[in-house]
Amino acid sequence: MKKTDLFIPLITILLVSCSPKKETLLYVGTYTENESEGIYTYQFDQETGELALKLVTPNKENPSFLTTSPDRKYLYAVSEVTESPGMDSGSVTAYRITASGALEKINQKATKGYHPCHVEVSPDGNFVVASNYSSGTLSFYRVDQDGGLSDSFQQIQHEGTGPDTIRQKQPHAHSALFDASGEWLVSADLGNDKLEFYQYNEATAQFQEAEKPFVAMEPGAGPRHFTFSPDGQFIYVMNELNSTVSVLKKQGEHFELQESVSALPAGFAGDSYGADIHLSADGRFVYSSNRGHNSIAVFGREPDGSIRLIETVSVEGEWPRNFALTPNGSFLLVANQHSNNVTVFRVDPQAGTLSYTGKSVDIPNPVCLQFLSR
């Protein structure tokens, strides 16, 4: 064998061993009425499931929902309040993510609505949209070159009510997501039992209703959060008020409701409210959280998009709000708001089932988990 034949594999080994290991950060959004100081940043080990606190970004305005830009350079956080300092509404804050993972504030802009509870960035990174729960409105921003936000250039007011005379007396915009192409913006409104569809009009530089402007959920369902299937042909909706997961299928250019399946085990008679929902990266499993029953529901997903409940697993805490699958899909972490902890579960890659690792970290009022792998 020639010396050069030995030299090439050695160089390859050295390059691999010297290449920097990918870092995985977990940003935790909280409610700050009690002991929370703001946004908590953890180092997460995707092989062991260990969490280590790195730092805390001070923010006492209920940074209850977080999202990162597609290029992983910026983080956006809502202030779920009626009045941010110097503003007569809630707000969204733009942060720069530094090399250390620390968050440097760029700017903060009013939503012109009350209690923004969700924020989303378009796939091209050009737009940010916030959902104002109490006002039932969506607020839109353009993203500047430095990652900061423009003033809100458009607000869309939802209309309508639902049969629940306490929770559905008015519209409550709860979340909004762009599809992978960026062509569609979809909003879930808990107050009017609708998924509302929008598209951006280049001529007017505004978002406008789609040709079919909404899909109605079951009366009293209270749609809260939703997610798209990897191929974009299905939408899975977590309904808060009746604790069901609804399946919408794309038919031509529109979506239609196919079925709604309970996220609770048969025979459960207590009070419970659906919260968050996510799909596994391979699209084989659907996960949703139950507040009250305090569980994660695991669904198997059939080739036709329909779902079947496999199991419900205790979250080892109380009031699971948001949860997140790790970037490599090996773990699922749950933010338990009332028990002030984040718990870690291992995911069986074949069965989709969850097993508690025994790992739990104490965080005051955790309500949102956002991973960043870089």
TrEMBL record:
PROSITE patterns: PROKAR_LIPOPROTEIN (PS51257). InterPro entries: Cycloisomerase_2, Haem_d1_sf, Lactonase_7-beta_prop, WD40/YVTN_repeat-like_dom_sf. Signal peptide: none annotated. Keywords: Carbohydrate metabolism, Glucose metabolism. GO terms for biological process: glucose metabolic process. The keyword rRNA-binding does not apply. Gene3D superfamilies: YVTN repeat-like/Quinoprotein amine dehydrogenase (2.130.10.10). The keyword Nucleotide-binding does not apply. GO terms for cellular component: cytosol. It comes from the Bacteria. GO terms for molecular function: 6-phosphogluconolactonase activity. Belongs to the cycloisomerase 2 family. This is 6-phosphogluconolactonase.
